[in-house]
């Protein structure tokens, strides 16, 4: 029976409620312990059973996602997913959110998010080689959104650059729904030897449990609980939970941990992320089927007078927990000493299944580890289709006033911050370190070579919250399909994905319905496209003052190139090439950027998705790339065909190349130009290779339409009896300058 | 030719230099931990990019006191070749091996991008085989690369042919838009009076393979090969 | 004329990696008499206001609204007369 | 105990884009009484030395060797008694 320290507050009903536990959950705690918890134990239960750590609302749905495949070495359940990429190598990757901290303090919130996801990767024994950032803010017409954007980008740059992991891609989108609740999702990928992976399991009774890294302070106590609450007016006052990242220490931690792993002495290793020492110790014990006994007096600290409660719940950054073979303590100390990092034996592995916490001589907590981890509650919460959805979906989009000038409408879309070139963001990130970036940011997917491998990897993050808002099932499918399509355009075969699910308060039946539908859509798309889910992260309670964000799944797709020479970009390569459209254009304007930007409406049904067609189009595109036909490939996404073609014309730097052509058929012009029909890819080929491409498409059963030719100073597209014409220079200016103008970022 | 590539806590380009010099160019290249006290046996030392000691306080300020630095200084004084790129350039300035200092970029933002450089002088072995005026394309990646020196120093550097690279437009002209960080006189790289110590903000190791978009970075080391055979 | 010397530091208890690193660097140089080190920002403002009380109120307001980040930083300032 | 408050600024004549940016940001917020703004660094050192003269000599030396770079920066410091 643990001793309650005299200084600890009494566990009253109010204290229980303040810890976010329901009455039923508290009853379950008492049933597990067969007594009242101490204050420290209450804190431990509260963080471990928080939504953030326990996935209590989402688990039943996540279980429906496909997670297995011949290439999958590790699916969900460890710190990151692992994919066999051949040549004896494995790609280890995962995406994670840091939405709530980034709203309170954008720079440090985003920075510590980067630090956290990097730790998840090297924990598995992989050297982190790249990051991608997926961001959502309110409209840039609002000063607060510009401030958050600037702060978040500075935070990612500040941490990622210094720690030496290049940020090679990402995406950013804007909507009023994120104004009080920005999203900051960061993906990290690392490379490991496929036969030298590490897991977060505590094994071997008597093995030492070693704390390594930075010292513990009162940082972010209850961060995990904060990420499990909605915001109100007082949120910005929750100062003490803000943590400051130290990329320098993290860099040392990466090197020291990889060096330690190479010694063969490591039994299990886990980073201290949300819920710090608590989460890492009970999860390692629970996964290993063992117990852990910790002595808090041995935990390195940087502040005086910290209580056991504070030490267990601190979320100080840049710390890891390692279990090594007995007798290897000195090896650990020597390696960490070389890197000027703390390493302290703080406990031992036991075989009684308990997380036992000692403070000096007395036991301050004693809980079955498994009850905290796998044993956390799981709910199938009520889910109800929102009543307002029908009206939104049925909105009449048949009679939209056409713009005065189609060319100006295109320029306006190209300058829209959602579509405009994001160079102003990515040039603040080192995106070339490690000499891998073969296709730089700016194209559909980033392509990385992998040293020691004949091919490489392509990556893209995608997720259209507006589509999901208008139809979560279709939106969920499209998130997967679009990410896969981007990777295909880069010349790679999509093989697996990680995802971050950002939603509102799960106790609202409408939000829960959105969640369930998005997951159902993602699962169907994953099965159809053969891309299992290797893990991810769920971020709920993304709402402020009762207004939830758009349901926003972010998919991070991993693609594999068997030959790095297949790396493909979206840009036309010269004048006189033929431009084709793979796929089909339908009358679909619902949920489009055109509708939002030019008509201020976020309504209608998102474009339909036929998964068989999607798969065929992507296969055709990859086959064409592999056979050497394709000079450029670019999928159509936000802004539709006209925007996609214009983007092919405009490289990030250098001279744009014109285009002239038409889309046959009887569609109305706005749908032809700007509708966002799915499963379409624009490719260019040398003139004499047109017939070969057409034959290849026919073999794949994919519609293939000759649109026109590249070259000249103008961009001309005819469709539905209308002609869109603009000087390609003017379009280039709109696309290249749009973002800086909207973000009020000065020129160089 | 044997290269020693220094590694400070927080360095990150040493791996890239080792790959470029060793795997791509076929030199012997070895990393040297900053706590080493000797640098015997090397013909050329590389101080790579990164954030040594987090670049806390000032870039390079703490690294210059690393245990290895006295040996680096002796090596340079005896005429050994030293190349500092990015953070390495900053450390060389802090250590007094090169004049001036590198300040925060005028944009106040980090910049990672391709730039063009004009070879201004052949006063160092690294550029001895290149024609002055030649344009090279290489990436930069830094937040503190704005070169500063007092007027007298700038005059001397110019007069003695010690400005080795200046940022320029693709056609070689100098324009403020082509200066990515606001450096004085568009300076991207300088050398010491003897010419054996070169510091530059760009990353030659990132421009050594056609796959990555440029092979111009190799030229600095090809030139070396031409001068010091073996 | 008045000049404000504003110093801004991270709040007590918030990790200051820069300060910690500088302290170790000083110790490595032999300066072992530094018990603690915090690194912050310094802002020097030349003011057109010549009334001390008014100037102080203005600077206080500038710190609150822009110069310091109230979430993680504390500030302090003094005014000095300059020619 | 003694505490040193060290302020470090860019030398006169060196472009300080951060100072200029802060000044414009202040002006945009309506603070138009700022004639000039410079942004520098602030280092707060808690010293174990209790003798003022010795402490001052130590801090002077720390500034010269590490805290400030004489090519670009000036420094100034004061000592204050703390409990
Ligand atoms: N926040 C960001 N950080 C880094 N790169 C970004 C960011 N936002 C966009 N990019 C890059 O800009 C390009 C276009 O992004 P996006 O418009 O999302 O493309 P797509 O519509 O093909 O998904 C991509 O190469 C992407 O990596
Ligand atoms: Mg795309």
Please, could you describe this protein's structure?
The complex is a heterotetramer, with one copy of chain A (748 residues), one copy of chain B (230 residues) and two copies of chain C (83 residues). With 748 residues, chain A is α+β, with helices and mostly antiparallel strands. Chain A is 35% helix and 24% strand. Chain A has three domains: 13-57 and 199-373, PurM-like C-terminal domain (Phosphoribosyl-aminoimidazole Synthetase, Chain A, domain 2, Alpha-Beta Complex), CATH 3.90.650; 68-197 and 421-566, 2-Layer Sandwich (60s Ribosomal Protein L30, Chain: A); 570-743, Alpha-Beta Complex (Phosphoribosyl-aminoimidazole Synthetase, Chain A, domain 2). Chain A contains 26 helices and 28 strands. In chain A, a hairpin with a 2-residue loop joins strand 27 (714-719) and strand 28 (722-727). Chain A starts with 12 loop residues before the first helix and ends in a 5-residue tail after the last helix. Mean pLDDT of chain A is 94; it is low at 233-239. Chain B is of the alpha/beta class. Chain B has a single domain, classed as 3-Layer(aba) Sandwich (Rossmann fold). Chain B starts with a strand and ends with a helix. The radius of gyration of chain B is 16 Å and the shape is globular. Chain C has a single domain, classed as Mth169, Chain: A. Chain C has helices at 17-28, 52-67; strands spanning 2-10, 34-47, 73-81. The chains are: A alpha+beta (748), B alpha/beta (230), C alpha+beta (83). Chains B and C meet through loops of B and helix 1 of C. Strand 2 of chain C pairs antiparallel with strand 2 of chain D. Magnesium ion (MG) binds next to loops of chain A.
Number of helical stretches of at least 4 residues of chain B: 5
- CATH uppermost class of chain B: Alpha Beta
* Contiguous helical run count of chain A: 26
Bound molecules: adenosine-5'-diphosphate, magnesium ion
Oligomer: heterotetramer
Main sheet: strands, sense, barrel of chain B: 9 strands, mixed
Determine the CATH topology of chain B: Rossmann fold
Number of domains of chain A: 3
Class by helix and strand content of chain B?
alpha/beta
Tell me roughly what share of residues is in helical segments of chain B: 10-25%
CATH fold title of the largest domain in chain A: 60s Ribosomal Protein L30, Chain: A
